[in-house]
Amino acid sequence: MEDSIELILQDYAGVFPTSRPHPIVSACTGALLTGLYGLWSVFTMPGFRKIPWSLMVPYLPSSKEQAQNVMKLLEGRRGRLADLGAGDGRLVFAASSVGFQCTGFEINSVLVAYARSKACWRGIPSSQAVFVKKDLWKTDLSSYNNVTAFLAPGVMEVLAEKLLKELPQDALVISCRFPFPNWPQKSTVGSGLDQTFAYEISSVRSHLRNLQKTEMK
Ligand SMILES: C[S@@+](CC[C@H](N)C(=O)[O-])C[C@H]1O[C@@H](n2cnc3c(N)ncnc32)[C@H](O)[C@@H]1O
């Protein structure tokens, strides 16, 4: 019986190799992974050194469908628009093409340079779209009546506080993928990862005021 098990194992030796990979192969794989991580962080992380870990949001571009959902929610609106974390500028370009005066705030200098060159290449004037390399948490948003954000679930509560403090009463806020906790939605478009939510700041403020009143009773 023991003999037969050994024979079986010998038969399968080619299918399940038991020997360890060659040290050079391991070293090369390690170096390749480290290089890829380095490359990824060069494009996704510059500017993040001064931002607390809990507020870090990596780059992930909006899908075509998500951008279309944002545009649907912006229908009937006009004026100034701030895109918080503008990435390569795709939401800014979409909104500026229908007449918004857009500012894309972005912390990653590589993405800012890329978005600016795209704007230049497309001949979009700075009266329609500008990209500012700035930390959104240190940016005064009081002059914007439209705000778009595709960030991360962990920052939505902090962002909600900031927007409530700074935005004018007629502002509309659009959040991609991640809803604001405790804010009543005006409307939502799409589903799954492309779902997009719209909030009227005036309604949010009055909802929160009423909530506070009922809690005090
Ligand atoms: C999920 S991506 C969205 C990019 C773009 N808005 C889009 O929809 O394709 C989030 C972006 O926010 C930027 N970001 C993260 N933290 C930021 C901060 N504190 N200030 C400005 N931009 C920030 C990231 O660099 C990244 O480009």
UniProtKB/TrEMBL annotation:
Q: Source organism's superkingdom?
A: Eukaryota
The UniProt keyword set, sorted, is: Methyltransferase, S-adenosyl-L-methionine, Transferase
Q: Which GO terms describe its molecular function?
A: protein-lysine N-methyltransferase activity
Annotated GO CC locations? mitochondrion
Q: Does the keyword Thylakoid apply?
A: no
Gene Ontology biological-process annotations: methylation; regulation of mitochondrial ATP synthesis coupled proton transport
InterPro entries the UniProt entry points to? FAM173A/B (IPR026170), SAM-dependent_MTases_sf (IPR029063)
> What's this protein's family per the entry?
Belongs to the ANT/ATPSC lysine N-methyltransferase family.
- This chain's protein is named Uncharacterized protein
Q: Which organism is it from?
A: Crenichthys baileyi (White River springfish)
